[in-house]
Design a protein that fits this description.
alpha+beta; five-stranded antiparallel beta sheet
Length: 153
């Protein structure tokens, strides 16, 4: 009988433990919230401005940063000269966006890319962020960089 009573008391003590998340755990849960963004990329009109390389973007904001995301539309040649490409992505909520990092992997026959600008729309907040570049991302043109950090314009 004593063993049963002790077991019952232990079980009641366990049930009474506060299982609510700590403030730090709450922040983690909030940071992990996934939201939608529309990314609009404008490639320049200069000769050989388009790229066949893989293009990646990373968002930086008041609540943190996203992981690096590949921008790709299956079955379509993205980032062609003079074209505007639109991508819908979902990632963690980064808050108010302050900058982006955009780059390519320098693969393909025509890797060099002249990027005019990137527009990011936070579809949940209905907020538009514009990032102007107007530079080459190329190993053989401009300053020979294939990655750019762009601040909101």
């Amino acid at each position: 009988m004593k063993v049963v009573l002790a077991s019952l008391m232990l079980l009641l003590a366990f049930i009474a433990i506060d299982c609510s998340p700590s403030a730090e755990e709450e922040k983690t849960v909030v940071a992990a919230k996934r939201v939608g963004y529309t990314v609009i990329v404008e490639t320049g009109t200069r000769k050989k401005a388009g790229t066949s390389a893989k293009v990646f973007i990373q968002l930086f904001g008041s609540k943190g940063r996203s992981s690096e995301i590949v921008l790709n539309t299956k079955g379509r040649n993205d980032f062609e000269r003079g074209k505007i490409d639109t991508f819908r992505i979902r990632t963690n909520d980064v808050g108010n966006i302050s900058k982006i990092r955009i780059r390519h992997d320098n693969t393909g026959l025509y890797a060099g890319w002249f990027l005019n600008k990137v527009t990011v729309i936070d579809t949940g907040r209905n907020t538009v962020y514009e990032f102007r570049c107007y530079q080459w991302l190329a190993k053989d043109a401009g300053d020979r960089k294939i990655s750019r950090e762009l601040s909101v314009s």
